[in-house]
């Protein structure tokens, strides 16, 4: 700060500052950059970090992000009280593109994270099969593999908002949502090895963590696109995501993606485990519970602007951006409204647009000084499903539910650019 830069004279600095000042008057982007940080490190000066040698490569065998990014975190202390039932949220407002970095993947553990030595790992497939088999991790890795990009969403995402807007950020309203490239063996390849006995129609998939989470999966899904995955974003699946092996059920609710997968039993009917009788059911207005809501239906949310990323009173050009997804297939269209759903414009979908994967959308907007806006996005998937309004969803589902809330979300942009979570009840 006090040392004078050796390159870039004071007079040249003065000149360029003046030009930048003119830019600010003309409303050029970047003109405001001088307002923050240490001016000594900013053009036309050579920054301090360019005048000494940085650390080399040997100190860090496994890379980490910039120390200036450590505020971007999934762990939310006030929402993660204990080990037995813990949860963390992906900070969606900070995400670029469609891939969730593995260190920011949301977590949901019912019995904590087991520490599994891959040498001890076994996957047993038994029940109504011709040849019961036990696979080691090596066995799995010898088999033909696939790498596919899919989202996983806990169906409790937004579950606190059935009666009204509560959470003050997209991390809390939608952050039990992540998207990774998963690598592994298609489950149908394993079932081809064990063979299936006549009448086989359901699978029980069980985890080896202390919760022994177990879910009944229709055989048709297992033979379609289910993956027994050992890879996540180019490396081994993370411990929190099921190391060494998890089940990937593209488009199906997150709780069925069994982590630390130990056992697959083939049968001819669902098992009605406590996870599918007591837990993951949807209480309907008539008092009955809907069971086996497998697919996460079409959904979307705007991630910029949002409560964590307000407009801070700076009027002008804004690229509205967000994420859309559907457990039923590809996203084909996303419409965006800035007036609470009175008028809509169609957003651009960013390539790649993949089936059962997060899809990023973008649309330009001019935010006028002091303009109050109600931002909404409405996604449509290739099966023709359209994201419902919260009022339409409540009409069918009531307000007693927790799971599978996929209604259109509203962010209120206030006159000063602050962004607030609200609901429009019509
Ligand atoms: N074995 C096991 N599998 C599990 C769970 C668990 O607690 N144990 N949690 C489930 C739930 S409720 C969800 S939403 C997802 C979360 O996956 P993630 O932690 O990789 O995000 O894993 C599912 N699979
Ligand atoms: Mo979940």
From TrEMBL:
Region (Disordered): 29-65
Matching PROSITE patterns: TAT (PS51318)
Any Gene Ontology biological process: sulfur compound metabolic process
EC nos: 1.8.2.1
Broad enzyme group: oxidoreductase
Keywords, comma-separated and alphabetical: Oxidoreductase
Claim: Oxidoreductase is one of the keywords in the record: yes
Span of domain Oxidoreductase molybdopterin-binding: 110-273
Name of the protein this chain belongs to: Sulfite dehydrogenase
Organism the protein comes from: Elioraea tepida
